[in-house]
Amino acid sequence: MNAAAPHWDIFCTVVDNYGDIGVTWRLAKQLAGEYALPVNLWVDDLKSFGHILPSLDPEACSQQHQGVTILKWSTPLPVAYTPGAVLIEAFACELPDDVKAAVKDASVRPVWLNLEYLSAEDWVDGCHGLPSFQPGGINKYFYMPGFSAQSGGLICEKDLFARRDAWQASSENKLALFEKLGLKGIAASDKVITVFSYETEALGALCEYFEQQPNPVHLLIPKGRSFNSLLPRLPCPVSELRPGMRIDSGNLHIHVLPMTDQQGYDELLWSADFNIVRGEDSFLRAQWAAKPFIWHIYPQEDDYHLVKLEAFMRLYCDNLAPDLASCWQKLNLAFNQQLPQAVQQHWEALTEFDSALEAHAKQWPIDALKTADLATRLVQFVKKSLR
Amino acid sequence: MKTAHEIRPGNVIMFNDSPWVVQKTETTRSGRNAAIVKMKLKNLLIESSTETTFKGEDKMDVIILERLDCTYSYFADPMYVFMDAEYNQYDVEAENVGDAARYIVDGMEETCQVTFYDGKAISVELPTTIIREVGYTEPAARGDTSGKVMKPAKIVGSDIEIMVADFVKEGDKIEIDTRTGEFKKRVN
């Protein structure tokens, strides 16, 4: 019997520009960087991927970046797939038929995993690691990221918290970053809020609230879906917004952010006082930033996203004072349910708890990570499966 | 072929040249509206059980085995006993009845389908909807007739509790979807 080639393959379809690819790119980098694993990342939309990896050539079929081989996933595959040690389909993407055929015919089959979306719901533990029968007698395993010790864990690089702490130790770092990003007129003591949301009326309501505040509030927003909710405030169509533009109204200053790579986005989150994030990747990075945040969760049919939001909020607020927990939860719910008046009311109420919420945000990453991060647990899971 | 989402307890599916009876299904929602279906399956050849997961859209072969319309007679631990129109009795192991057991109560009149493999009764499938009486539930909140506000209710003759519309009262007959365990409507 031949030994399997040691490489790992990760297949990812880009769904809404930065979420799915953001998670898989981080995982691929971490597996290559921290575990010295040869990783092939197959992506179906290199142009979108290029927004978070500017050095990427969107036309190249195969290229190396930060220790990861990035391969173009088109039909047919421009580079032949060779079964390796591990095959990951990210977020239940449908693998090409020739990949499935190659797995079926392999003398030594890879450990085949479906890397699922992150959820804080209870059922995650019961599904994590279970096999899924596939035609031809092949087993695929469901790998469920999660917050409990029984789940697949959370993506977090080993040196992340140390880098974050070093960054946050001096306000010079954030001011230098704002300067580098072309953001003008932000003083060290000003309130800075990053916004990476889906469309919501709640955002306009927060803008109304911020412009009436006695001190400056800076909203840093990349060109994209968040601006669709602020059209009446814009001096031009969204397509004509340019990075570095600033839109002033009372004490509110909206800055148009340039796109950054993942390292730059982390630094931005570390530099803000508050982050409004969406989906999965930025949601997790906002937690690791140790700053208060609102999670704008991906909307689902029948408002099922609110079940997922509630599950996370229960965990996050487990050891918070009841008044603070209630206030933060109401703010998140109001934002997700697009309730303009309630968002203003709960934001105002939350300001009373600023220092307690900040202290909680600092402790949460340590509590949430528990015994090991996702990559570590994944490598252990694969080793166990190969036995 | 059926999707994993359509599979119900009592179905028998083929995998790796073996027939597996579905004892339990649990559907959950992943991100972006995708479903994950967790199943408890029993291999009918080697009599061993396993848990497995599928994407909701995964396709699988449901094999059609001999089936008979039967009514529930009684429980003789660990067997549920069913009877056909000619008064023949068939024993189904409680383990193979799976989640359907939640809805089996003494005196139930609904026709169930008992499935046979190699001459042996191996599973039972309930009708898609059944009617049961509410044994206990809190009084309705005043004024709500929309059916959108839900509250828990206990069902007569069983230990199950399901969420029902707020206007449902003790003694009401309600229709339950046995695939999802959800309240459908009040029938009296």
UniProtKB/TrEMBL annotation, chain A:
Catalytic activity entry: dTDP-beta-L-rhamnose + L-arginyl-[protein] = N(omega)-(alpha-L-rhamnosyl)-L-arginyl-[protein] + dTDP + H(+)
GO terms assigned for molecular function: translation elongation factor activity
A Pfam family: EarP
Keyword terms of this UniProt record: Elongation factor, Glycosyltransferase, Protein biosynthesis, Transferase
Protein family membership: Belongs to the glycosyltransferase 104 family.
Protein purpose: Protein-arginine rhamnosyltransferase that catalyzes the transfer of a single rhamnose to elongation factor P (EF-P) on 'Lys-32', a modification required for EF-P-dependent rescue of polyproline stalled ribosomes.
Identification of the protein by name: Protein-arginine rhamnosyltransferase
Protein species of origin: Shewanella jiangmenensis
TrEMBL record, chain B:
Keywords from the named record: Cytoplasm, Elongation factor, Protein biosynthesis
Highest taxon listed in the record's lineage: Bacteria
Pfam families documented for this protein: EFP (PF01132), EFP_N (PF08207), Elong-fact-P_C (PF09285)
Localisation per UniProt entry: Cytoplasm
Pathway(s) of this molecule: Protein biosynthesis; polypeptide chain elongation
GO-annotated molecular function: translation elongation factor activity
Domain Elongation factor P C-terminal: 130-186
InterPro entries: Elong-fact-P_C (IPR015365), NA-bd_OB-fold (IPR012340), Rib_uL2_dom2 (IPR014722), Transl_elong_fac_P/YeiP (IPR020599), Transl_elong_KOW-like (IPR013185), Transl_elong_P/YeiP_cen (IPR001059), Transl_elongation_fac_P (IPR011768), Translation_prot_SH3-like_sf (IPR008991)
Domain Translation elongation factor P/YeiP central: 67-122
Function: Involved in peptide bond synthesis. Stimulates efficient translation and peptide-bond synthesis on native or reconstituted 70S ribosomes in vitro. Probably functions indirectly by altering the affinity of the ribosome for aminoacyl-tRNA, thus increasing their reactivity as acceptors for peptidyl transferase.
Family: Belongs to the elongation factor P family.
Name the record gives this protein: Elongation factor P
Gene source species: Shewanella jiangmenensis
Gene: efp
